[in-house]
Design a protein that fits this description.
This protein has 98 residues and is mostly helical. Helices cover 26% and strands 0% of the residues. The protein contains 2 helices and no strands. Helix 1 crosses helix 2. The longest helix has 15 residues, at 31-45. The radius of gyration is 41 Å and the shape is elongated. The termini are far apart. 3% of the residues are buried.
Length: 98
């Protein structure tokens, strides 16, 4: 916060007062009024950031450019498992005989 206040204090000499319709013009700008017109200073200085990349439809493949054919892999098939031959068990008997 103190650094921001110092930044506004040093920038007040370079700011042009642009009061809103309900504000009266000032000769000696307060930090709040400097902050209002600080966007003009930032726009004049510029930014070190690179411009954003373009958006939209990509150009696609160039004309005549062909892709190599896809690599084909053999199909893997699973076989149904064979049942083991087991002895036939007798049906269960009930413990209570009627």
């Amino acid at each position: 916060m103190p650094l921001m206040t110092w930044q506004l204090w040093f920038a007040r000499l370079d700011c042009v007062d642009a009061p809103l319709p309900w504000q009266s013009p000032q000769d000696n700008l307060a930090p709040g009024r400097v902050a209002q017109s600080f966007a003009v200073i930032i726009a004049a200085i510029g930014t070190p950031a690179i411009p954003p990349k373009l958006r939209g439809k990509s150009p696609g493949r160039s004309l005549g450019d062909r892709l190599p054919p896809r690599i084909r892999y053999p199909t893997v098939k699973k076989h149904a498992s064979k049942r083991k031959k087991t002895e036939k068990t007798p049906p269960p008997t009930h413990p209570i005989a009627i």
